[in-house]
Amino acid sequence: MYRIISVATLATMISVFPLGEANASNTQWVDPFIGTGGDGHTFPGAVVPFGMVQLSPDTDNPMRGVSPQPEIYKRCAGYHYDDTTIVGFSHTHFSGTGHSDLGDLLIMPISGEVKTNPGTAKDPDSGYRSRFSHDQEWAEAGYYGVELQDYNIKAELTASPRVGMHQYTFKNGGEGHVLFDLTSAIYNFENKVIWSDIRKINDTTLLAYRATNGWARNRQMYFAIEFSQPIDNYRFINEDDKRYRCMGCLGKEKHSTIENKAVKMSAGKAIKFVASFDNVENKPLQVKVALSAVSRSNALENLQAEIPHWDFNKVREAANSEWASYLDKVDVAGTRSEKRQFYTALYHALQAPSLYQDVNGQYRGVDGEIHDGKGFEHYTLYSLWDTYRALHPLLTYIDPDRVSGMIQSMLVHYQQSYEKMLPIWSFHAHETWTMIGYHAVSVIADAYLKGIRDYDLDLAVEAIINTANNPVYDAIPEYKQFGYVPMDVLPESVSITLEYAYDDFAIARMFEAMGKSEQAKQYFARAMSYKNVFDPQSGFMRGRDSQGRWDPEFNPFKAKYMGPFTEGNAMQYSFYVPQDVAGLITLMGGDEAFTQRLDDLFDTPLSHDMIKEHEDIAGLIGNYAHGNEPSHHIAYLYNYAGKPWKTQQRIRQIMDTLSSDKPDGLAGNDDVGQMSAWYIFSAMGFYPVAPGDLAYAIGAPQTPKVTLKLANGKQFTTTAVGLSDANKYIQSVTLNGKALERSYLTHNDIMSGGELRYVMGDKPNKNWGRAFKARPPALSEYQ
């Protein structure tokens, strides 16, 4: 962060944060605090690209029935910038989700009296939490540091893919303690911990385990913990029966007999452990924690393989270098703020899907069994309703090889699942069945059409067909029978119909490219199902029942929980036909009528009463909700009506009012990188409205120059000549020196390398991109 600080604080920062902007890498522009305020739901802690460990501070663990729902929602990532106390540091976190879970193995260093309950933010002295200040808090890619004011301890964190490393400097000297709280979790509702145990293996090593019921049911995690110096005293605490159990004191001769007889483990649903160290003033105490979803022995193997030494700065530098290897794939010119926003967005976009596999190749499958990766890296955390839109298309350019591993992970999920489904919203070997659609097919189709095919293609086809025709999932039989999902069969019926229709388009495109023409024809026909929920009388997408009757309670502004729409209203979802915008324009009365409808969406105020049941609907410009995914493609739809200058106007409006490089700089939760991916594409000046059609609608570049270093060795550069606050409109475009009259790019344009050059001005060029042949493709072109 950048704020006024004292000389003393600056001296501390120099000692703990030496990499900073002196580093020539693009990591210098990353600010992990962006998105930790407002409803961004990101965390500031240590993580490497796609890492299994996300080691970060937790500022509160609200409990169901104690904290109001908005407070729980506010802290989905465990940390919120508005908070003033830290409960401890846990090793797993979601980045930018709208739901809470994880927070595995909370650790808190303590000096002085040891309290074993966290206390409350209103009364920090009642527990082990500590006050902190943002003036004494630092973060960079792969590192986090903070002064715990109540204990006078400097806590620093870094990570490798499977191991988190802590470094605690006890400035008061004397005796220091480290508390392990296996009861703590993000969204820590009552009875979340099913079972846990912790055992002392030797003077420096602990092994732990816990299983939790949260968003994921019976989720299991194992931990190997190692200290940089021997434990002098310790105690197990079992709060199942509210009794402290001192199991012995190492290093004390008078207790040696007790220690020799002591049990070295404790197990239950409310287990904590305190390790104490007599002399902590000479050098920092370090702790390494490795994760495994398979076994304690695998966790120990992960620890020994990834961080066998005690050089904290070496791990920190390796994490920073790993980030540099990714962030340096993109070079951005622009203001300090623009660079900070762009590279932090890229940093957030490259955290998931995350590794979910041990160094020996083993992982826990969605069937609960232990599997071998058989030559591919296994990944978890698929927030597909969000990320199919822009994050997964972005990854095809940033790391196409890793995309293959992600698709292979989806395919083994399909094989292992009882329902024989590709993932919907899955993490840590569990399917949550959250959100709608079967968007894994979009990810697979988009990758296949881009030439990413290093996985079992026959299995991919099988998985796609079985998923799209699964008789037990979200009214698919009714969708096929009626051509829409009836509202008397399933809530959110209109949104489900529209999203199924898009997914079917992606399937059709893939099958067409594979030469499966009859199957492609079938799915192209299904992709037209959107027309069956368009009410020509009202001019909106509208719920209808199995008798064909329209929703009698229809209100286009109302976003009703368990109503016809998913986290949105008819104003927004009536524009969700990314696969056939031309067809939607015809339904809405032509170019001018469609343009007016878009203008109405942005310009008509939306009353809070209409959306109060959905806290995800945020970042409003009229009825446009940038903080939630159903709106993300809408600003680009003017291109399809021959008015790309209006897209340029709206993109600048969104960027200027809903994005910044401050902690509250995200308009809504980042949704595992989707919001960030939207920013990255939009800053370059184009966006994948319908992944799978291999076209990108051109918007308005937000930075003077961006260069993508592609995996094929070529570079693709966007240059915005004359870009300024006033010059937000495209006057002309050239691609490799030749005039580009169409208002879209293709995947081949990007992969061929070269330069896309925009000339910007302060007045719109209303002729550029106006012609029908200049508009982005629509479904009819593939039939």
Q: Main beta sheet: strand number and arrangement?
A: 9 strands, antiparallel
CATH topology of the largest domain: Beta-galactosidase, Chain A, domain 5
Q: How many angstroms separate the termini? A: 52 Å
Regions with little confidence, pLDDT below 50 for 5+ residues:
1-22, 243-261
| CATH class bucket of the largest domain | Mainly Beta
- Look at the structure and give the mean pLDDT: 91
Find the structural class using helix and strand composition.
Answer: alpha+beta
Please list the strands of the largest sheet in the order they lie side by side.
Answer: 6-7-8-9-18-13-12-11-16
* Contiguous helical run count: 20
What's the CATH architecture name of the largest domain?
Distorted Sandwich
The beta-strand count equals 38
Cα-based radius of gyration, to the nearest Å: 27 Å
Shape summary: globular
Assembly classification: single chain
Task: Bin the helical content.
Answer: 25-40%
Strand content: 15-25%
Domain Glycosyl hydrolase family 92 N-terminal: 29-292
Keywords: Glycosidase, Hydrolase, Signal
Signal peptide: 1-24
EC number: 3.2.1.-
Report on the structure:
The chain is α+β, with helices and mostly antiparallel strands. The protein folds into 4 domains: 7-313, Distorted Sandwich (Beta-galactosidase, Chain A, domain 5), CATH 2.70.98; 331-360 and 633-783, GH92 mannosidase fold; 367-470, alpha-1,2-mannosidase (Glutathione S-transferase Yfyf (Class Pi), Chain A, domain 2), CATH 1.20.1050; 487-631, Up-down Bundle (Glycosyl hydrolase family fold), CATH 1.20.1610.10. The chain is 26% helix and 21% strand. It has a 9-stranded antiparallel β-sheet with strand order 6-7-8-9-18-13-12-11-16. The chain has a 6-stranded mixed β-sheet with strand order 19-33-34-38-35-36. It has a 5-stranded antiparallel β-sheet with strand order 4-10-17-14-15, with no helix packed on it. A hairpin with a 4-residue loop joins strand 14 (233-238) and strand 15 (243-245). Helix 10 (440-449) runs parallel beside helix 13. The radius of gyration is 27 Å and the shape is globular. The two termini are 52 Å apart.
